Every structure is written in structure tokens, then in C-alpha cells.
Amino acid sequence: MPTPDATLSIAEQDSVFRPRKVHGTTVGVLTEELQAAGYEPLLTPVGRREHETRLSGAAMNPQAVGPGDLFVAVSGARAHGADYSRQAVDAGAAAVLTDAAGVDRVRHQVGYRVPVLQVQRVREAVGPAAAVIYGNTAASEPALFGVTGTNGKTTTTYFLRSLLEELHRPRGQHTGLIGTIEISAGQDAIPSQLTTPEAVQLHSLMALFRERGIAAAAMEVSSHAISYRRTAGLYYDVAGFTNLTQDHLDLHGTMEEYFAAKAELFTRRRTRTSVITVDDPWGHQMASVATGRVVTLATAGQAAEVDWQVVDVEPDGMGHRFTLHHARSGERLRTRTGLPGLFNVSNAALAAVMVLEAPDAPYGRQEVAEALQERDPFTISVPGRMQVLCEAPAAIVDFAHNPDAMIRTLDAAAATKGEGRIILVIGAAGERDRSKRPTMGAIAVRMADHVIISDDDPHGEDPAQIRAEVMAGAREAVESGGLTTQLEEIAPRAEAIERAVAAASPEDTVILAGRGHEVHQDFAGEHRPIDDRVELSEALLRHGHSPWEIMDSTVRQSSLQTDGVRNSPPQQSDDHG
Ligand SMILES: CC(=O)N[C@H]1[C@@H](OP(=O)(O)OP(=O)(O)OC[C@H]2O[C@@H](n3ccc(=O)[nH]c3=O)[C@H](O)[C@@H]2O)O[C@H](CO)[C@@H](O)[C@@H]1O[C@H](C)C(=O)N[C@@H](C)C(=O)N[C@H](CCC(=O)O)C(=O)O
Ligand SMILES: Nc1ncnc2c1ncn2[C@@H]1O[C@H](COP(=O)(O)OP(=O)(O)OP(=O)(O)O)[C@@H](O)[C@H]1O
To answer: 413 to each of 393, 398, 405, 447, how far by Cα in Å?
Structure first.
């Protein structure tokens, strides 16, 4: 679960990715467009001045409002945005879009200083409204590749971006990325606040991508984003489905509802081509309910009646080499990924098939085949995703923070550990799907040899209570299974990491699960700096091991923006791998 990065304010983040020139519109035209789209807008007051009011941007957070913006005031769990209208109008908002409950609140705050557009389904209308303001249409967007699923979104979008770069760079074109770790447009990148930003920001980004000649973009689409209509008004050339397992039941209630949220993406209305991984029953169900052009992909085992199948998987370094086989044509493409874990074969295969099946692409199939076979696009560092920091002991930082991801990560470690032990540091986030805590504790003790339960992001909860819930599941599994797993509870997290490394021999594997690339822990709103990768590297050095250099840009970026966080990569010894 991403922790919003406190180092970059919403206003700062918003301003980085606004286009320089905006198409813009008037309140009158916007009203007509929303009417045509079925939102039944009510504009008050109805005068010529209101109709002609120009709009040159849109913002949902008052801190991000600039002159000429449409301020979108939604009703949420914490507040009604309309109660912040004065701040927005003082910052230059030219009009407000809100729901019926918001209109009186806006008037209470700012009287009749600005026109107010009232619609019924305001969250749903935000995307279409922002698209009108920024002049975005399906044809004007870059080729958009959206990835959804419980696990693998971030990794798959990094793989996609890497392959797309290989194909577009020779054409002098750039690519973009929108996801949990960063938003990037060509060379520029900033840390993300959300996995999938709000619609106002997404449309501003689409306009910016156009302005900067970004030809293709890979984007994570979270189930929250679909439920909260953040992606309304965007049209995907290709949408990819990774998998569905337990997570986010605090928002969705049941797996069926969680599935239904994701399924919205795989409809003709939203997406031209859907590529669906059918390794689990949810994948098969997704393929059967998807509308429009559907391409299926099986990455594990032999499946009947799929379009693409992963075959001939062989270990290759820390990763795997594999072949993509197209059932109808018999086409075979060999490629590899250097990232550990069979699930990364699935992620790489999905990225490859999404690009191979993209409609109206400027590159041919032969070019994609060459890039896959010769340019190794899936051997890249994805920050905090199976990120290997040392060989002996093997030391891995991974974002696994739900039961399925933990099982797969620990499976991957078991496959390469040889005679060594697996030492695991885990925690669970507060204010998120509580039911997974004991399950994760149980998985940990069943699959690792030494488990240290520590803190993740407690958010507003008591960290000791969260640890106790993880511990309860772990103890129960140890007792009922007669396990010999060594089990400890250590907080703060830095001490748990130190303990894990102190306990490790060179043949062991140390895994820090749950926090990946994140650089703060949120304790009731207090952001305490900690980066698992830095802590791990430093502990390895202290204990005489030879960690690799941390090679990704996020760490460097964060060190620029984080007050006091120890983010500089450690000094390397001469003999590191
Ligand atoms: C559960 C969820 O997604 N909530 C999001 C939702 O909150 P909400 O509808 O309850 O709105 P609210 O916070 O009450 O605010 C309502 C309005 O008042 C305004 N407001 C509110 C408070 C204030 O002080 N000032 C202010 O102006 C807000 O800008 C907003 O316009 O809309 C808010 C405004 O955009 C988001 O900030 C908020 O995301 C919160 C921060 C969040 O943590 N979201 C996470 C869970 C999330 O979306 N995660 C997924 C990834 C999940 C995963 O796969 O791991 C993501 O895509 O990032
Ligand atoms: N295809 C996959 N299937 C199962 N587990 C995976 C898969 N890919 C990655 N994982 C595991 O899930 C963790 C998160 O991976 P990644 O960040 O790519 O997924 P995500 O969907 O973006 O996650 P989140 O929504 O929590 O940000 C990884 O660190 C790894 O442990």
C-alpha cells in the first residue's frame, strides 16, 4: 500500500505535471458537454458572464488550485470538498463543480463569486469535465497501456515502459509511466502520492504527455481508482489483468465486488484490447465477462484454448528464460527476465503480450520480437520489487504485503536458497484489510525458518496491537503445525532489520517484506524516515558483507526531498557482486 509521500506537497506535485499550454474551455461549453454526456448539469447563476467564464485547468484539492481552474468539490469519508471552496476561490478557482449537497456549502463559503455547476454523480463527471478542459480525446492520448490486478501492477508497468522505450526511442519518441512509485514523462519523474492519481491530474498528465511528445504510457490502475472513478474519461489501447487474490476487502467488502470493480476496465467502453492472464479462476471469469477484443494468456501450466502460453521456462541467473507461444499461429518468441520469482515470468509475459497485441502500433511484430529476444527489456531494477541487494547472504527487499504475494516471494526464495535458511521481516499496515494480518503471520512461519514481526505503516492504529494480530496467526500456525520456526517480535523496524542480518550466515536469504521502495513509516500522521533498502545495506556492511549499490532513481530522488532520511547508497566494498 503506498504511503503518500509527505516530501512533495499536493500543490507541488500538481504543478510539476501541468501542461504549459492548455486547450481550455468556457463554463458554458463545459455545461453543454456534460449535458450531452448525461450528467444533467445545473449551472447557477445562469448569466452570460458565468457562461463565458474561462477554465484553464482543474483541481480537486484546494492546495493545488491555480488561477482559472475548475475546483471539483466531492463528498468523501473525511470531508466535503465544498467546505474548502473559499481557499480554492482565493487561489483563483474560476468555477466549482459539485453535487447537490455541495452547492449550499459553496455559497456559504464564497457567496456568488464564482459560477457553480451541480451534477448528480460528481466523481464520475470529473474525468469527462477535465477531458473537455484539457482537450483530451481517445485519439489525442498517447497509446495507453493500463495494468490492473492484485499483484504485479508496478512490476508489469516497469516492464512495459522498458519494452516501449526500446521500440519508441529509435523513433525519437519518449514514454511515460504512472504508478505507485513514480510518475514520469520522458526524463522527468516525481514520487507518486497514489497508485492511480485523481482524474483531474490524469487528464492534466495526458495533456502534458501530448505537449512533450510522449507516444506511449504504461499506467497502473488500482481498484480504488476504478471505484472512485479516477480513470473516467480515459481510453486504454490495451488493458492487462495480472491476477486477483485477497486484498482491499476493507473497501470492496467481498472478492466478488473487488472483481466487479476490476472488471469495469475490461469493457469496450474503456479499452480497445484486453489481455487477461488466466492462471487463476478469476482470470477465466474476467476473460468471459470482458467485452471488446479479448486476448488470453496462460503463464503457469498447460492451459486449453488460450491465445498465448508461456512454455519452456528455465532458470537463468536469478531470473528465468521463457518462450511465448501463440496457439493459433504457432509463433514462438524467446525472452527472459532477470528478476527472481516465477511471478516475474508472468509479469514479463503480460507486458510482452500487451505490446504485441497493441492496435495500430507504429512498430511491427518483428521489431517487438527482436526487442524481446535481443535487448533484454525485462532485466531492470524495479524499486523495492524483488530487489536483490546482496548475494551472500542473499538479501532481498520486496513489496509483498498480502497473503498471495508473500507466498510467491517465499516460494521464489525457497527455490534458490539451497541449504541456507530464510530469515523474514514482516509487518502489516494499520487501517487496512485487518483480516489478512493473522494469515500473513501464518504464511510467514510456515515458509520461513526465522520470522521477525515488526511494523509496517501503522497509520492511526496502535502498532503493538497490529503486531499482536500478526503474531497471533503466526503462533497458532506454529502450535497447530508443530513448526520449529524461530519467531520474534522486534520494533522499531530498523532494529528488526539489524537482527535479521545479524542472524544471517552467507548461505542464508534475508527478505524484508511489505515496504519495498517506501521511505517513511506513517505513525498517526507522523512520517518517520526509513528505507528498507538503505537499512539493509547498512546492516550488511556492519556485519562484514558486501551489498550491491542501490541502483534506482527513487532513492536518489527521495534523498533530495526527504528531510533527514539516510538515503545515500552505502560505500561499496571492492569485491561486491
Ligand atoms: C479510500 C480512498 O481512496 N480515499 C480517497 C478519497 O477519499 P474520500 O472520498 O473519502 O475523500 P475525503 O478525503 O473525505 O475528501 C473529500 C474532498 O475534500 C477535500 N479535502 C478533504 C480534507 C481536507 O483537509 N481538505 C480538502 O480539501 C479533498 O480534496 C476531496 O476533494 O478521495 C481523496 C481525495 O482525492 C483521496 O485522498 C483518498 O485517498 C486516500 C488518501 C488513500 O489513502 N487512498 C488509498 C487507499 C488509495 O487510493 N490507494 C490506491 C492503491 C491501492 C493499492 O493497490 O494498494 C491508489 O490508487 O493509490
Ligand atoms: N504476478 C504476480 N503474482 C503474485 N505476486 C506478485 C506478482 N508480481 C509481483 N508480486 C508480488 O507482489 C509484490 C508487489 O508487486 P508489484 O508492486 O509489482 O504489484 P502491485 O500490484 O503494484 O502492488 P500494489 O498494488 O500493492 O502496489 C511484489 O513485491 C511481489 O512480492
So the answer is: 12, 11, 12, 10
CA distance 261 to 41: 26
Distance CA 454, CA 426 (A): 6
Q: Say yes or no to pLDDT of 314 above 80.
A: yes
> pLDDT (tens digit, 9 = 90+) per residue, 100-132?
999 999 999 999 999 999 998 999 999 999 999
Q: For 84, which DSSP code?
A: G
CA 266 to chain centre: 18
149 CA: nearest ligand 2 atom = 21
Dmax of the chain from CA atoms?
Answer: 79
Distance 151 CA to ligand 2 centre (A): 4
Residue nearest to atom 48 of ligand 1 (CA): 224
Grid cell of 251 as nine digits? 473497501
Q: How many CB atoms lie within 10 A of CB 568?
A: 11
Q: Which ligand is nearest to the CA of 151?
A: 2
CATH classification for the domain delimited by 387-555, as one of 3.40.50.150, 1.10.510.10, 3.90.190.20, 3.30.230.10: 3.90.190.20
Please tell me whether 180 is known to bind a ligand: no
Q: How crowded is the C-beta side of 204, counted as CA atoms within 13 Å?
A: 26
Question: 273-306: buried (b, 16+ CB within 10 Å) or exposed (e) per residue?
Answer: bbbbbbbbebbbbbbeebeeebbbbbbbeebeeb
CATH superfamily of 24-134: MurE/MurF, N-terminal domain (3.40.1390.10)
Non-local CB neighbours of 378 within 8 Å, separated by 6+ positions: 159, 162, 163, 335, 336, 337, 338, 339, 344, 347, 348, 351, 352
516 touches 550 (CB < 8 A) = no
* 143-374, CATH topology level: UDP-N-acetylmuramoyl-L-alanine:D-glutamate ligase (3.40.1190)
- H/E stretch holding 200: helix 199-211
Most informative mutation of 3, 9, 61, 433 for ligand 1 (most atoms within 8 A of CB): 61
Distance CA 214, CA 163 (A): 15
Q: Is the pLDDT of residue 327 over 90?
A: yes
Provide the whole-model pTM: 0.87
Amino acid occupying residue 440:
M
**From CA 121, how far away is CA 19, in angstroms rounded?**
27
How many of the other CB atoms lie within 10 Å of CB of 536? 28
The strand pair at 214-220 and 143-148 is best described as parallel
172 a known binding residue?
A: no
Task: For residue 378, list its beta bridge partners.
Answer: 337
C-alpha cell at 176: 511515460
Average pLDDT, stretch 68-93? 96
- Is 150 among the annotated ligand-binding positions? yes
Q: Can you read off the three cell numbers belonging to residue 494?
A: 530498523
> Tell me, what amino acid is at 79?
A
Q: What is the pLDDT of residues 200-239, one digit of tens each?
A: 999 999 999 999 999 999 999 998 999 899 999 999 999 9
Q: How remote is the CA of residue 72 from the centroid of ligand 1, in Å? A: 13
- Measured CA to CA, the distance from residue 219 to residue 376 in angstroms comes to 21
